[in-house]
Amino acid sequence: MKTLGIVAEYNPFHKGHKYLIDKLKKETGADYVVVIMSGDYVQRGCPAILRKDVRAHMALLEGADLVLELPIYYSSQSAEFFAKGAVSILDDLGCIDYLGFGSESGDIESMSMIADVLLSEPDDFKFSIKKHLKEGLSYASARAIAVSETLNADALSAKNIDDKKDYISDILSSPNNVLAIEYLKALKWKNSSIVPVTTKRVGEGYDSLNISDEENAFSSATAIRNIIEKGSVNSHIPAKEDADKLLQKVVPGSTLPLYYNGKITTLDDFSSLLHYRLLLEKSEGFNKYADVSEDLSDKIINNINSFESISDFSMKLKTKDLTYSRISRALLHILLGITKESSDRYTKESSFTGYGRILGLNKNASAMLKKMQENSTIPIISKLADAYKILDENELSLLKETIAASEIYNMVRGDDTISEYKSQIIVI
Question: Is the pTM of this model over 0.85?
Answer without folding.
Answer: yes
